[in-house]
Amino acid sequence: MGAGHAHRLYRHGHSPVHALPPHTKLAAVFCFVVVVVSTPREAMWAFALYAVLLGVVAYVARVPAAFLLKRLLIEVPFVAFAVLMPFVAEGERVEVLGLSLSVNGLWGAWNVLAKGTLGVAASVLLASTTELRELLLGLQRLKLPPLLVQIASFMIRYGDVITDEMRRMRIARESRGFEARGVKHWGVLAKSAGALFIRSYERGERVHLAMVSRGYAGSMPVIDEVTASRAQWTYAFALPGAALLVCLLGWML
Fold this sequence. Notes:
By secondary structure, this protein is mainly α. It is about 70% helix and about 5% strand. α2 runs antiparallel to α6. It is found in: Cell membrane.
């Protein structure tokens, strides 16, 4: 975890949100999502206020709306599931534009869409303002089991290594005039997949031997000691704190 590692969701910047220690942002986003999930689905105004709060965070973090909306497309499968709920759910029915829809299904669809979208938006804002290396350090600082942190770290790095290896193999095939056009080319693709597996396995063994030769004994050394002041914790928890107030009002009103 000592080397920098950027990812596509990250947007470089120097905003107050970028400057916060990663573990404070992780804790704040987790608490915000818990509060959103705990909000009664009937309090529609509360979810609108949550969206406003996330909009304020995006503004402070200087994350453009287009950047955020584009990355929200990841939840499209959940949207498709939510759209089907009013048609397949049982219970009381209601006519909407000539369609017979389930009341429970409509509430369920709204619940999934509202809470899911807010959770994804909060996660995208976290990823947009925090590098992967910092996220791993934040998880380590929050006392997540070290083995899980190491697995996540290696998974991220090997994911990039395998992706790059796949790109080189594709370029090599195309440079020899190969182009997959049908079932008859599946054999070549299968052989490429097998070669990719063998190369990845061999590279993993070489990396492990190199780590052991340098003294690796099951735990990664802590290079950066990430700390946070009381003011930084207060600043980070402004979002979940405001959301908690909205949630309480949603249950009382």
